[in-house]
Design goal:
The chain is mainly α. 71% of the residues lie in helices and 0% in strands. The chain is built from six helices and no strands.
């Protein structure tokens, strides 16, 4: 599976006048979609599980790294909440890898989609 968040793709996306929040939201949606593709087609796609989980882990590593930057404008409490969420994501990823089941992806998919909605300014959708 190719990585849609490789530096070339991400850089070319940045040139489309999207805000940083929109880029993050799009990355979360794409990663959730990849996890959901594996979940919905489990019998045929479970071989793609580790790649989809790795993609999600890389995305969350970037997200938490960005907000923990000293110069990031988010309040400290919100930064801590995101770090805690990332810790949960990383732990859940290990749990899913240890005991793979399609329904175990639901929480990862839901977190990504809900955060993307929040970033896009539509948390009540």
């Amino acid at each position: 599976m190719s990585n849609p968040y490789s530096s070339g793709t991400y850089t070319s996306t940045e040139k489309t006048n999207l805000t940083h929040r929109q880029l993050e939201a799009n990355a979360l949606i794409k990663t959730a979609s990849e996890l959901n593709r594996v979940r919905q087609n489990w019998d045929e796609k479970k071989g793609d599980l580790n790649g989809a989980l790795e993609l999600n882990r890389r995305l969350w590593t970037v997200l938490v790294g960005n907000v923990n930057d000293e110069d990031h404008p988010l309040p400290v409490e919100l930064k801590q909440n995101i770090a805690n969420l990332a810790y949960f994501i990383f732990k859940r990823t290990i749990d899913v890898m240890a005991n793979p089941k399609p329904e175990s992806l639901d929480v990862l998919i839901n977190i990504n989609m809900n955060l993307a909605k929040g970033l896009n300014g539509s948390p009540s959708d």
